[in-house]
Design goal:
binds zinc ion; about 300 residues; Alpha-Beta Plaits; 5-stranded mixed sheet; about 30% strand; 7 helices
Amino acid sequence: MELQHRILQFSNSPKYELLKSTFQKLDCRYQFNENGPLSSIEYTFSEHAPYASELISFAKLNDLFLQSALHYEEKEVLSAEWVEAEVGEFQYPQPEDSYIEATYDTRNYCSRCGQGKKQDRPFRLKKDFSQKQAQFLGLHWVFDEIFIRPMVVSLFNSTEIAGVKYLDVIHHKTNQPFDNVFQLDIPTIEEPALIVDNLFSVTCKSQNEESFVKGIGQLKDRPGAPFCGRVKYHYPLTEPIKFKASSLKGLPDFVKSYECYGSGAGANHFILVRNKVVRLIKEKKIKGIGFRRPIHLV
Ligand SMILES: [Zn+2]
């Protein structure tokens, strides 16, 4: 596990030349991304790299794009008992302006923080996914659902992956289920299990913790529904994702966290998969699902 930082700047930025000369001065092997007027330079480095702290201070001082995230070696992922799963975003749920009402029981839903919705109808899609290589697929806005091709259903059924069911997905225009796309029905852990000590928490209340965050905060509350008081967390990019080991015992091989992460009205559950699923998918070289973050059990 290692904290990695990435500094990036586009060539039309007034800070571009300054960053380039700083990289050259420090002998950083930066990358140039040729893309016409949107060309950029970027440099990814470990927290242990020479000049790491100088570069971070320089980026912060000059207000440059700086992204920091934990990076794990593949062997760390493969040896973990549980791993976080992620799929790509390929299309929008339908209807785009009311998919929440069309897909979820919203009796407990809060439109301010996005928490409390419970799926009770199939997802509706405009068309089949056009990604032919990927057997696992995902949507924009909905980061805690996984869509699959029939071969995944056969594979999971033949290898005793426990606790998953499959849901139909509806072609929005014809109202008919797709015959080659299904949704994995992933059960949610029934009790709090995420260790939240070092996470940035966001409470659904007037002028909450996010109000003071540059880029997302707002000086005044948006007009809207009453605040529900529930708490969610920012995605822990630079902190390990930790769960209570005792809460994960005896669960199915795919589960969703009880807690949500996200900012603004975004609220998604973490998707956790057991080691045997990760190994099976890697062994069969099935595409479309990523495993980058092991779950730290406490
Ligand atoms: Zn709320």
